[in-house]
């Protein structure tokens, strides 16, 4: 009996000591004082400041907050408590140095559509494994082999636009979609292109819809298309297994036995990569077409660079080495990524109470590094509203230029994106001229920043 009481006493003392130690550690880590929340306002109950954010250009909202409260401020939007950050150092802390304390976060409806097992939603071992596989397929060594096929897609796209009034963004989406399929399925891509396209286009219509899963709603149709996509992918997997061939594309990488991924995990990540690759690259290409048209001296410099390259080539067709001889065009891409900042910000969530630059970010709060504000701050870029590719003749200051994010979730497809842009710009500038139609000053957020109405243009062959 006495022994049992002694045990009870020891166990409760141990639990009490752990509790006290935990409290002391917390107090010590927050400097023994209850830290304040960052400055800012939370708006109306429930609604917060969502209306202020979405009733105007979001950048006006961010800029007025930064002016009032500085580079870290709190707000409440879309039903979430948020801390927004716009200093390069703070962005690095969230995305790189303390990335284990800030996990990626997305609305549940996005997870359901893309698939819960997709790379974006994960941290830790599973994320590292997927990242290794994706990086392996998109590193220069792997994608340099598909330059001729990318070029053929670019040439065919441009030929089909010739003499037409086109919506640049719509057409660039098709091009970026085809390049994404090529990088995922290799040469088999053409076999599945139409079926996958049909389902993927129905799925994307539901991305920004209300998550109401009743027959007839956009969300319901998108979920149906999602199931259909999984079926097509299951068919492709089974065909590849029967053929027992080694493939060096992304699907081949995912299917390696040693990786032990389930079919569901593979499907979620294929759909995820298409999602990450298509609208992003298409938006950037659309902005490049606009900026080149608006800046004739830049267009001339790019055209001369590309024509020179074409002239000096003995055989027809571009190769990987050629794409490394395009410094002016490369700077145009960098400046477009900065000026357009198609991804204005990203989302993270604090996994525990975090002390951050003297403030408390409570567990569960969202943290948004504001890429666009970092790219448009005069502290980081002189005359930031001016489109000036020559600014990239000198490397930007550390952490001030992050169009592809930073840290463990940064974009593994950035080399492929730059490659497909360079290839298309080569053929666009050496063979065609184009004119923009309709109003040219508006920006849409859908959700990526985009010229108004997707930039209608007419394109014709140079004489
Ligand atoms: C110019 C075009 C592109 C831009 C501007 C872009 C931008 C980004 C950014 C900013 C992130 C990080 C998001 C975050 O930290 O929350 C990201 C992640 C990602 N991107 Fe891209 N991207 C582009 C093209 C592509 C392409 C072509 C692919 C694939 C072929 C791709 C695949 C991915 C994937 C899989 C992730 C998630 C990585 C992870 O969570 O570890 N992206 N992208």
UniProtKB/TrEMBL annotation:
<feature type="binding site" description="axial binding residue">
    <location>
        <position position="411"/>
    </location>
    <ligand>
        <name>heme</name>
    </ligand>
</feature>
<comment type="pathway">
    <text>Plant hormone degradation; abscisic acid degradation.</text>
</comment>
<dbReference type="GO" id="GO:0046345">
    <property type="term" value="P:abscisic acid catabolic process"/>
</dbReference>
<keyword id="KW-0472">Membrane</keyword>
<keyword id="KW-0560">Oxidoreductase</keyword>
<dbReference type="GO" id="GO:0010295">
    <property type="term" value="F:(+)-abscisic acid 8'-hydroxylase activity"/>
</dbReference>
<keyword id="KW-1133">Transmembrane helix</keyword>
<keyword id="KW-0812">Transmembrane</keyword>
<dbReference type="Pfam" id="PF00067">
    <property type="entry name" value="p450"/>
</dbReference>
<keyword id="KW-0408">Iron</keyword>
<dbReference type="GO" id="GO:0016020">
    <property type="term" value="C:membrane"/>
</dbReference>
<dbReference type="InterPro" id="IPR017972">
    <property type="entry name" value="Cyt_P450_CS"/>
</dbReference>
<dbReference type="GO" id="GO:0009414">
    <property type="term" value="P:response to water deprivation"/>
</dbReference>
<dbReference type="GO" id="GO:0005506">
    <property type="term" value="F:iron ion binding"/>
</dbReference>
<keyword id="KW-0479">Metal-binding</keyword>
<dbReference type="GO" id="GO:0020037">
    <property type="term" value="F:heme binding"/>
</dbReference>
<dbReference type="InterPro" id="IPR001128">
    <property type="entry name" value="Cyt_P450"/>
</dbReference>
<keyword id="KW-0503">Monooxygenase</keyword>
<keyword id="KW-0349">Heme</keyword>
<dbReference type="InterPro" id="IPR002401">
    <property type="entry name" value="Cyt_P450_E_grp-I"/>
</dbReference>
<dbReference type="GO" id="GO:0016709">
    <property type="term" value="F:oxidoreductase activity, acting on paired donors, with incorporation or reduction of molecular oxygen, NAD(P)H as one donor, and incorporation of one atom of oxygen"/>
</dbReference>
<comment type="similarity">
    <text>Belongs to the cytochrome P450 family.</text>
</comment>
<protein>
    <recommendedName>
        <fullName>(+)-abscisic acid 8'-hydroxylase</fullName>
        <ecNumber>1.14.14.137</ecNumber>
    </recommendedName>
</protein>
<dbReference type="GO" id="GO:0009687">
    <property type="term" value="P:abscisic acid metabolic process"/>
</dbReference>
<dbReference type="GO" id="GO:0009737">
    <property type="term" value="P:response to abscisic acid"/>
</dbReference>
<dbReference type="InterPro" id="IPR036396">
    <property type="entry name" value="Cyt_P450_sf"/>
</dbReference>
């Amino acid at each position: 009996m006495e022994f049992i009481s002694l045990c009870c006493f020891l166990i409760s003392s141990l639990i009490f000591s752990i509790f006290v130690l935990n409290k002391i550690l917390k107090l010590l880590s927050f400097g023994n004082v209850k830290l304040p929340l960052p400055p800012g306002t939370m708006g109306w109950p429930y609604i917060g400041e969502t209306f202020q954010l979405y009733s105007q250009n979001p950048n006006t909202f961010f800029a007025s907050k930064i002016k009032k409260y500085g580079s870290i401020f709190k707000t409440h939007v879309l039903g979430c408590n948020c801390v927004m950050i716009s200093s390069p150092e703070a962005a690095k802390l969230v995305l790189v140095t303390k990335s284990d304390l800030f996990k990626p976060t997305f609305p549940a409806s996005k997870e359901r559509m893309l698939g819960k097992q997709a790379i974006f939603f994960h941290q830790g071992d599973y994320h590292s494994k997927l990242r290794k596989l994706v990086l392996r397929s998109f590193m220069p060594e792997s994608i340099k082999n598909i330059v001729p096929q990318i070029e053929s897609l670019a040439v065919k796209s441009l030929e089909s636009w010739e003499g037409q009034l086109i919506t640049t963004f719509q057409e660039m989406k098709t091009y970026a979609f085809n390049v994404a399929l090529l990088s995922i399925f290799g040469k088999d891509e053409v076999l599945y292109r139409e079926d996958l396209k049909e389902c993927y286009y129905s799925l994307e219509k539901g991305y920004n819809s209300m998550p109401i899963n009743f027959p007839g709603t956009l969300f319901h149709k998108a979920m149906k298309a999602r199931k259909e996509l999984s079926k097509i992918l299951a068919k492709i997997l089974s065909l590849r297994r029967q053929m027992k061939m080694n493939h060096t594309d992304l699907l081949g990488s995912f299917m390696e036995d040693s990786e032990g991924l389930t079919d569901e995990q593979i499907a979620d990540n294929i759909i995820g990569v298409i999602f990450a690759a298509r609208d992003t690259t298409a938006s950037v290409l659309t902005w490049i077409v606009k900026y080149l048209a608006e800046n004739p001296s830049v267009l001339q410099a790019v055209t001369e660079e590309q024509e020179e390259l074409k002239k000096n080539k003995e055989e027809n067709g571009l190769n990987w080495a050629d794409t490394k001889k395009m410094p002016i065009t490369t700077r145009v891409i960098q400046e477009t990524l900065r000026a357009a900042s198609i991804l204005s910000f990203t989302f993270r969530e604090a996994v525990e109470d975090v002390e951050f630059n003297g403030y408390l970010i409570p567990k569960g709060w969202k943290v948004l590094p504001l890429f666009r504000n970092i790219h448009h701050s005069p502290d980081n870029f002189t005359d930031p509203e001016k489109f000036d590719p020559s600014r990239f003749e000198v490397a930007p200051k550390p952490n001030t230029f992050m169009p592809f994010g930073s840290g463990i979730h940064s974009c593994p497809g950035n080399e492929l994106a730059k490659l497909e842009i360079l290839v298309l710009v080569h053929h666009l500038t050496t063979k065609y001229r184009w004119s923009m139609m309709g109003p040219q000053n508006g920006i849409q957020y859908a959700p990526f920043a985009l010229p108004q109405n997707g930039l209608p243009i007419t394109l014709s062959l140079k004489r």
